[in-house]
């Protein structure tokens, strides 16, 4: 690296060039306080412009630059590793000066524009000398082009520009002859009297390390900022697309603190139940670097992480903003947990919403799971169970949740473990009678318990608690008068009235909600009765209907409230033993053992198959001995992790082992992507390994009637995604199949239908056979699925050699390369390959061979 002192003019003037703020940088964040401080410094320097006092220049800070991957010899591009806030602010100040001068001195305005803000002869993004991070570009580019859009509330770019326009207007009386000169002094102060230290990194320098070290002092970046930097520094070719499609919507919908919390939750959801939020960046970095590709995580792994973060962001927003949950039952549960301020429960809630959105739990089951979470919190609060282990309890839920149960039953079991301390009915009833509820927990939590108890009365006109200004009231006051003590004296047995008051005053049976707390005060019970009787709350009217309010009445009401609490908040299960870390890896081990010769899978595919995270899968395989075919789990791009190590006995050179298992490698050293087994492939593989029947398709006979036949729907859906040449080739294929004596069956899907090349009697279950199922692409291009899994149950293709022969004939088509390891599955190829005349002829010959073998199946 080299460092030198410079000014803004030195940095940006001269040849056309561009300073790019990377995607990983936080958005522009200077507030008016920082702008005002800079403005004061600018004014001080403007007064010195004509004095030539060079020693009094103001040091603004450093700017760290590195060559951009898009750098060109004729158009240098620089990444702004550090200093984007300063450069953006100065550029906006100059844009304000340009626009201030435009009406009176258009030539000067044009000069400012061309010297500092734009590359005059460049178009598109290259037009700007400074290119902010993607989220800031629309506002910034509009101001530089001189056509500012309507300012969004809180937009910092627009706010900074408006600040400088306002300050220029305040400073300068445009009727005075010296006014234009004053503005030009300010321009000169900005460009020539604010000193920068420019640090320029060479190509190959570790820019990420520079970024980290710069932010270890001064105003530290958040964990989310550091991790964002780490991620996008490792997306050199996919960064823009991933940022725009996944990161920017996520970042726009969450605050920086919420985004950091989501990133931490993703680690927890992947099974890291001990990670602290303040260690988020280091922990996630270590997870990625356990499986390095050429010294860095593969772009595909980084992209998969960001996509998963984006997906889970939808769950997280509903947790923190329940009004976004469309289901009313779940929305009510989430609102109560938010009002409880139950941040510790987020890992469990994220698991519940994930299963709900995946379709593994319906709304009723998800609501039941949330009711267990609420009950766990409420019962522990009523029974005064310390909260110091709640973080650990809920952080361990993703790793410990029983895999064989639905999410509601699994949570019920897990939270019922004896070391979770979920009070049962007997303990709850006792604590309602005796525990000083008013002196435990947070005020909002105590109020929510009473609110829920009021709701249990199912009043036909329930109170709107959101707008009601209710507080907790002691029916028997905390400072009782003589009337109260005389009443208690009548109930005292072996203790004084004062002792009885101390014992019962803060119990749940003596507490209620009211909007007239100050009026109730310490009045005798007969005066409180009238006020309580006029209340909209059913619990208050019931208290008012009681003749007296002594110890017996308080205990009796406590028993009634305990009954309601027991009914409302479910009890734990009995005899569950201790909860231990119990992520079930059996499915992973089972499907890996079933991997066919010549196939591999990725950490991400295996993780999605078992409902885990890619990093958790990698850590498990690296540390668990005896897992069959563990070495055939590779990075998403088909590369062996640089950090790969054998667990247990040394298996030798891993690439040699993979080659002996039938894997082929590309010229770049990656495993053949055609041999990769996807999540769906793994599911099919396990179905076969466990003897489950192959899911049979159910094509129908061709339709003759109706507004749109299924045949017409299939072709319409195909044409919406594929070229006319592909659609024409598919039409020719269908016609050719019918000429061979087959018929076309169609799926019943409205959104996406399908076409089956059928042989055999229509409508006879289990009698038909088909070699291919054709699917419209739905945005990805139509495909032909080769149904080896179906053929394995139909003569004569139960003979694997016959299926292998079919595979070889299909692989003779240019653009088709199905690995032998998928002979038990349902691989596919693109329908677009049929645009080639030679491919259509080969496929027609293959289908003729298929028909002939099927017709001869009973021959001796």
Description:
The protein is an alpha/beta fold and 860 residues long. 48% of the residues lie in helices and 8% in strands. The strands form 4 sheets. The chain has a 6-stranded mixed sheet with strand order 1-6-3-4-2-5, sandwiched between helices. Strand 11 and strand 12 form a beta hairpin. The chain is flat, with a radius of gyration of 36 Å. Mean pLDDT is 84; it is low at 174-178, 580-584, 692-698 and 701-705.
Strand content: 5-15%
> Which structural class do the helices and strands define?
alpha/beta
If strands are numbered along the chain, what order do they take across the biggest sheet?
1-6-3-4-2-5
The Rg value, from CA coordinates, equals 36 Å
Straight-line N-to-C gap:
81 Å
Assembly type of the shown chains?
single chain
**Main beta sheet:** 6 strands, mixed
Can you give the helix content as a percent range? Answer: 40-55%
Helical segment count: 37
The best one-word shape is flat
* Stretches with pLDDT under 50, minimum 5 residues: 174-178, 580-584, 692-698, 701-705
How many E strands? 15
Mean pLDDT: 84
Keywords:
860 residues; 6-stranded mixed β-sheet
Q: Short description, anyone?
A:
The protein has 860 residues and is of the alpha/beta class. The chain contains 37 helices and 15 strands.
Helices, strands, pairings?
Blueprint: E1 2-7, H1 8-12, E2 18-20, H2 32-46, E3 58-67, E4 77-82, H3 84-101, H4 106-117, E5 130-131, H5 137-145, H6 156-171, H7 179-192, E6 194-200, H8 207-214, H9 223-232, H10 239-253, H11 256-269, H12 280-289, H13 299-320, H14 328-339, H15 346-358, H16 363-382, H17 390-395, H18 397-400, H19 407-415, H20 425-434, H21 443-455, E7 471-474, H22 482-491, H23 497-504, E8 511-514, H24 517-520, H25 525-533, H26 538-544, H27 551-568, H28 586-593, E9 601-602, H29 603-610, H30 614-623, E10 633-634, H31 654-660, H32 679-689, H33 710-719, H34 724-739, E11 743-746, E12 755-758, E13 772-775, E14 783-786, H35 788-791, H36 800-811, E15 828-830, H37 837-855
Parallel strand pairs: 2-4, 2-5, 3-6, 9-10
Antiparallel strand pairs: 1-6, 3-4, 7-8, 11-12, 12-13, 13-14, 14-15
């Amino acid at each position: 690296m080299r460092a030198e002192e410079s000014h803004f003019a030195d940095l940006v003037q001269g040849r056309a060039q561009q300073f790019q703020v990377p995607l990983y940088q936080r958005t522009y964040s200077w507030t008016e306080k920082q702008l005002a401080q800079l403005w004061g410094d600018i004014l001080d320097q403007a007064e010195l412009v004509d004095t030539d006092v060079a020693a009094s220049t103001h040091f603004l800070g450093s700017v760290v630059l590195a060559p951009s991957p898009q750098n060109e010899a004729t158009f240098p591009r620089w990444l702004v590793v550090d200093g984007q806030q300063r450069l953006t602010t100065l550029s906006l100040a100059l844009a304000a000066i340009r626009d201030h001068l435009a009406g009176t001195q258009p030539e000067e305005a044009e000069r400012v524009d061309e010297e500092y803000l734009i590359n005059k002869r460049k178009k598109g993004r290259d037009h700007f000398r400074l290119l902010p991070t993607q989220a800031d570009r629309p506002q910034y580019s509009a101001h530089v082009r001189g056509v500012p859009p309507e300012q969004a509330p809180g937009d910092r770019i627009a706010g900074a520009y408006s600040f400088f326009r306002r300050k220029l207007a305040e400073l300068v009386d445009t009727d005075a002859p010296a006014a234009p000169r004053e503005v030009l002094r300010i321009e000169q102060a900005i460009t020539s009297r604010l000193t920068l230290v420019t640090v320029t990194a060479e190509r190959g320098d570790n820019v990420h390390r520079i970024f980290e070290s710069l932010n270890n002092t001064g105003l530290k970046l958040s964990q989310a900022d550091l991790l964002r930097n780490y991620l996008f520094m490792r997306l050199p070719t996919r960064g823009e697309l991933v940022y725009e499609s996944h990161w920017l919507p996520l970042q726009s919908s969450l605050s920086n603190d919420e985004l950091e919390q989501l990133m931490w939750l993703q680690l927890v959801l992947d099974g890291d139940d001990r990670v602290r939020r303040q260690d988020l960046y280091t922990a996630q970095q270590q997870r990625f670097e356990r499986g390095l590709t050429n010294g860095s995580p593969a772009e595909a792994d980084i992209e998969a992480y960001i996509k998963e973060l984006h997906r889970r962001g939808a769950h997280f927003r509903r947790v923190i903003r329940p009004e976004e949950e469309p289901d009313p039952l779940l929305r009510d549960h989430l609102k109560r947990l938010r009002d409880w301020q139950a941040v510790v429960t987020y890992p469990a809630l994220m698991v519940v919403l994930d299963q709900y959105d995946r379709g593994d739990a319906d709304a009723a089951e998800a609501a039941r799971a949330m009711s267990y979470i609420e009950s766990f919190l409420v019962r522990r609060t009523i029974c005064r169970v310390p909260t110091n282990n709640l973080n650990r309890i809920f952080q361990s839920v993703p790793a410990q949740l029983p895999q064989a149960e639905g999410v509601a039953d699994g949570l019920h079991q897990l939270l019922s473990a004896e070391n979770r301390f979920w009070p049962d009915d007997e303990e709850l009833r006792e604590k309602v009678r005796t525990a000083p509820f008013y002196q435990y927990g947070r005020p909002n939590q105590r109020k929510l318990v009473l609110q829920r108890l009021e709701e249990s009365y199912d009043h036909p006109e329930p109170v709107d608690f959101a707008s009601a200004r209710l507080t907790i009231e002691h029916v028997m006051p905390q400072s009782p008068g003589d009337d109260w003590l005389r009443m208690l004296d009548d109930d005292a047995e072996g203790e004084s009235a004062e002792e009885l008051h101390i014992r019962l005053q803060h119990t749940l049976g003596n507490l209620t909600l009211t909007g007239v707390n100050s009026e109730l005060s310490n009045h005798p019970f007969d005066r409180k009765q009238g006020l309580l009787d006029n209340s909209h709350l059913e619990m208050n009217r019931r208290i008012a209907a009681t003749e007296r309010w002594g110890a017996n009445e308080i205990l009796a009401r406590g028993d009634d409230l305990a009954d309601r609490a027991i009914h409302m908040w479910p009890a734990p299960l009995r005899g569950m033993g201790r909860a231990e870390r119990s992520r079930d890896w059996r499915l992973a081990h089972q499907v890996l053992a079933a991997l066919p010769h010549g196939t591999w899978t990725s950490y991400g595919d295996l993780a999605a198959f078992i409902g885990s995270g890619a990093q958790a899968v990698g850590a498990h395989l690296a540390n668990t001995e005896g897992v069959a075919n563990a070495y055939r789990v590779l990075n998403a791009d088909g590369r062996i992790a640089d950090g790969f190590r054998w667990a247990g006995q040394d298996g030798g050179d891993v690439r040699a082992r993979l080659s002996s298992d039938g894997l082929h490698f590309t010229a770049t050293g990656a495993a053949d992507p055609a041999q990769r087994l996807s999540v769906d492939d793994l599911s099919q593989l396990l179905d076969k390994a466990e003897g489950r029947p192959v899911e049979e398709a159910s094509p129908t006979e061709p339709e003759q009637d109706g507004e749109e036949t299924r045949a017409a729907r299939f072709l319409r859906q195909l044409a919406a995604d594929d070229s006319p040449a592909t659609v024409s080739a598919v039409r020719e294929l269908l016609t050719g199949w019918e000429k061979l004596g087959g018929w076309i069956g169609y799926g019943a899907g409205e959104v996406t239908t399908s076409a089956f090349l059928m042989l055999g009697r229509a409508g006879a279950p289990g009698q038909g056979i088909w070699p291919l199922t054709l699917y419209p692409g739905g945005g990805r291009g139509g495909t032909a699925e080769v149904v080896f899994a179906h053929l394995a149950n139909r003569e004569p293709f139960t003979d694997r050699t016959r299926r292998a022969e079919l595979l070889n004939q299909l692989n003779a088509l240019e653009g088709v390369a199905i690995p032998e390891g998928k002979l038990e599955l349902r691989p596919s190829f693109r329908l677009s390959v049929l645009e080639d005349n030679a491919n259509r002829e080969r496929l027609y010959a293959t289908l003729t061979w298929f028909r002939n073998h099927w017709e001869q199946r009973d021959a001796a």
